[in-house]
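USER: Please consider what follows.
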Amino acid sequence: MSQVKMPAVEAVVGAAKRILDSIKNDPEFGAFRAASLEYSEDWQCFTGFPVVAHWSLEADAEPLFEEGLRALALKAAVYDATSDDQAAEIAIAVPVDEMTHAMLAQAQLLTRIAARVGAVIIHQTDQEHTDYRVGGYTHDCYRAAWGEPPARYWLDHEEVVRRRDVLAGLYASIGMGGSGREHSISFAGAAA
């Protein structure tokens, strides 16, 4: 992680709220939202969204989209205060981070919106931190900006690890190894 001193929560909150409001008021926000939610056909993640209890793409996509926006706004606000992309990779809960991937897949729309808003959208997989914890820096910033984050999506890192272990056991029971990254299914009788 970066050696830059993290900005005060109060400094991040104002910028995050401004960035989020500006994104939502952008003329292309509706297209961005629709495209991000349409990404659903490509949402085959075995260890991100499924850690949410009783996960349902239909029921959870819209609220998770809001959480993804808030996460990106917080990261952009930290970058705004530090000019350090590593510092801006604050801890995000796994399901929320997974939603940001669907948003980042709308690269041209998000790039244009960010440019108009004057925000730098931060995400680099090898730098990201999905070790979110209640009481940590991200939680403090979120809570100061928008109130308590929904615990359904903002799961503590240790709980995510526990749930991933449960999922790995279930996947293994149907021949899927590596938590869905490999399998021993032959698809006998099906075209290859």
About this structure: The radius of gyration is 18 Å. The first strand starts at residue 176 and ends at 177.
